[in-house]
Amino acid sequence: MEYKEHLTRYMANFVDELAKTGLTDVVISPGSRSTPLAMTMAEHPTIKEWIILDERSAAFFGLGLAKQTKRAVALVCSSGTAAANYFPAIVEAYQSRVPLVVLTADRPHELRDVGAPQAIDQIKLYGDYVKWFQEMSMPEATPAMLAYVRKNAARAVQTAQGDNAGPVHLNFPFREPLIPDFTVENLWGETTEESYAPVIEGQRVIPENMICSIIGNLQLVKRGVIVCGPQVDEELGQAITKLAALWKLPILADPLSQVRAGNHPKNHIIEGYDAFLRNKHYRKKLKPDFIIRFGAMPVSKPYLFYVQENQDAKQYVVENHGGHREPVGNRTEFIYSDPVSFCTQLIEQGGDLKFSSNWLQTWKNMNHITKKHLTDVSGEALTEGSAVRKLISTLPNESSLYVGNSMAVRDVDTFFLTTSKNIYVLANRGANGIDGIISSALGAAATGTPVTLVLGDLSFFHDLNGLLASKHYQLNITILLINNNGGGIFSFLPQASERKHFEALFGTPVNLDFKQAVDLYGGYYHKASNEMELEKALRESYQESGLSVVEVITNREENVTWHRNLWADINNDISKSVVE
After folding, report:
1. What is the per-residue pLDDT for 115?
2. Burial of 465 per CB tally in 10 Å (0-12, 13-18, 19+)
3. Residues 179-208: tens digit of each pLDDT
4. Residue 262 burial class via C-beta count within 10 angstroms: exposed 0-12, middle 13-18, buried 19 and up
5. The pLDDT value given to residue 555
6. Which residues form the Menaquinone biosynthesis protein MenD middle domain (predicted)?
7. Cα separations (Å) of 479 from 404, 409, 448, 452, 467?
8. pTM to 2 decimals?
9. Which structural domain, as residue segments, surrounds residue 356?
10. At what angle do helices 87-96 and 55-69 cross, to 10 degrees?
11. How does DSSP classify residue 151?
12. Is the pLDDT higher at 578 or at 554?
């Protein structure tokens, strides 16, 4: 058997096993050394290939696609710095628990560390930011090696998707020639439709005696809160609201919790907590005896202060499989269980628990006042907050909202009020970076789901290369670009008082005409200066095919004043109506 046949069968069995284990999408960045991987992926009948030229954009595109589908997506690139450009998205995938199967081509061992071109040390290139690394063998087509390559393919997908999901990395050294021969007989090997190494995984359920112990502890206290941070289980809304209704407890729901939107009841959901917990007096009044948190730590910084100031409160953090996502350092009891099953167990065993009705009503009253101010805010000119508020009200049902970091996610936290629409909210909140946001949103749009992206001008600038995917594949996406000509979030931080260096180091205006960038990538461009124009532009964008960008120009200093006045008005109204 010649080397080319060894190469072909080895790669075909690997790719076929990826498909049998459930992988349906691969994002490929062109290169020579990755030819065996790329061509075999493109040849397979059930795997869809997406060609993204820029490796950094490609990795974030795969990240967004995996977030939207909740399935592993493969990445394929050539050797050298091509693989290094994946790193930011791999860090984000690891931190936010997104399954990626990273397949990097490499020079053969004899060409490493000898000055060969496009050869860097790719062994464990991503360090501890992958769940599993494997240096693959040189291609062979013996029965033992075909079993080896199938086993590793199945393990890669299963490891990426299993437990707390995340990226895995397989490194493939290839010698020339690199082009497979797809005319070989029985190209895809095994005829069985089953995976080489199927996995049967059950749900984690807490033993009954431990549930009784938790309930016994809660019987001794009166005031608690249920918190739902960023998480992706769309079924949790029904379970968590049923539990809150039984126990008469408030739910502090993060905008990325998938709990503010949907068909479940929402009368116990407190979505305005970020606004009124800014007041230290209110945080003191709302001192809890216990906190039960599902999902990651919420976006809200006032909530962080709330937890820091209540270290004596009993805190439970519910995680699907494991982890220690508790950045405050408070004493915490971690509960590793399926969240929906855990809620069901508490409902079944804790039906007799009674908590303070006055406690719940206080939270509701504060939330009602807050929502009144958030919906009544108006003005002739658009502010960043009012632009996000108008976007939220205009979003189509059964769509996804992808949220940029810095100011965008904070305004969504403030203005995304409860809705019966089915809106799935996504963001890159693992590492909270501003890079790759456009590519991630386009990856989500690649599923055919209507996607709206809201982000700032610096995030837009950081990922202009990502716009090529929208043109190349005619992906439908609406982008609300809030342009305050710089890093608006820094205007809220202490650095803003350092006027001498603020603009150069933190404000960082780019002074770019983004319409030209939209034109370059063949998109539709709209500009809005008031709420009526914005609503009209957004509605038009949802009728347009491909890329649509709606730009809103704001002023950073005015934005700070507007937000602080809004928070002050909320605090004043609450102090008159609720707080003694």
Report:
1. 87
2. middle
3. 999 999 999 987 777 787 787 777 788 899
4. buried
5. 87
6. 222-403
7. 11, 14, 16, 6, 11
8. 0.95
9. 208-361
10. 20
11. H
12. 554
Indicate whether 151 and 11 sit together in one domain: yes
pLDDT in tens, 474-509: 999 999 999 998 877 777 778 777 777 777 788 788
User: What is the rounded CA–CA span in Å between residue 58 and residue 571?
Assistant: 45
Per-residue b or e along 90-112, where b marks 16 or more CB atoms closer than 10 Å to that residue's CB: bbbbbbbbbbbbbbbbbbeeebb
CA angle 377, 379, 384 (to 5 degrees): 75
CATH of residue 451: 3.40.50.970
The whole-angstrom separation of Cα 336 and Cα 342 is 9
User: What confidence score (pLDDT) does residue 352 get?
Assistant: 87
Q: Are residues 110 and 221 in the same domain?
A: no
370 assigned to some structural domain: no
In a domain, 316, yes or no: yes
Instruction: State the average pLDDT for the chain.
Output: 93
Q: What is the C-alpha separation between 40 and 262, in angstroms, rounded?
A: 41
Q: Report the pLDDT value the prediction gives residue 416, as an integer from 0 to 100.
A: 96
Confidence label for 579 from pLDDT (cuts 50, 70 and 90): low
Regarding whether 382 and 340 lie in a shared domain, the answer is no
DSSP-assigned letters across all residues of 20-66: HTT--EEEE---STTHHHHHHHHH-TT-EEEE-SSHHHHHHHHHHHH
35 pLDDT higher than 70: yes
Task: Please count the structural domains in the chain.
Answer: 3
pLDDT over 60 at 580, yes or no:
no
The residue ranges of DSSP E strands in 178-331, in sequence order, are 224-228, 251-253, 269-270, 290-294, 314-319
347 shares a domain with 229: yes
Residue 521 backbone dihedrals phi, psi, to 5 degrees: -100, 15
Residue 577 lies in a domain: no
Alpha-carbon span 381 to 67, nearest angstrom: 35
* Predicted local distance difference test score (pLDDT) of residue 541: 97
Bridge partners for 26 per DSSP: 49, 74
- Fill in the DSSP letter of residue 321: S
Do 522 and 385 lie in one domain? The reply is: yes
Strands 224-228 and 251-253, bridge-based pairing: parallel
| Average confidence (pLDDT) over 354-379 | 89
Are 161 and 119 within one domain? Answer: yes
Answer yes or no: is 196 within a domain. Answer: no
Q: What CATH number is associated with residue 350?
A: 3.40.50.1220
**Structural domain ending residue among the three candidates 306, 336, 361:** 361
Q: Say whether both 105 and 242 belong to one domain.
A: no
Q: Which residue among 173, 194, 226 closes a domain? A: 173
Burial class of residue 77 in the structure, from the number of CB atoms within 10 Å of its CB (0-12 exposed, 13-18 middle, 19+ buried): buried
Instruction: List, in sequence order, the alpha helices (H) in 446-548.
Output: 457-462, 467-473, 499-502, 514-520, 531-541
* Residues 542/477, Cβ–Cβ less than 8 Å: no
Q: Tokens 């809890």 label which residue? A: 288
User: What's the whole-number mean pLDDT along residues 34-50?
Assistant: 97
- Claim to verify: residue 514 and residue 395 sit in the same structural domain: yes
Alpha carbons 172 and 565: distance in angstroms, whole number = 57
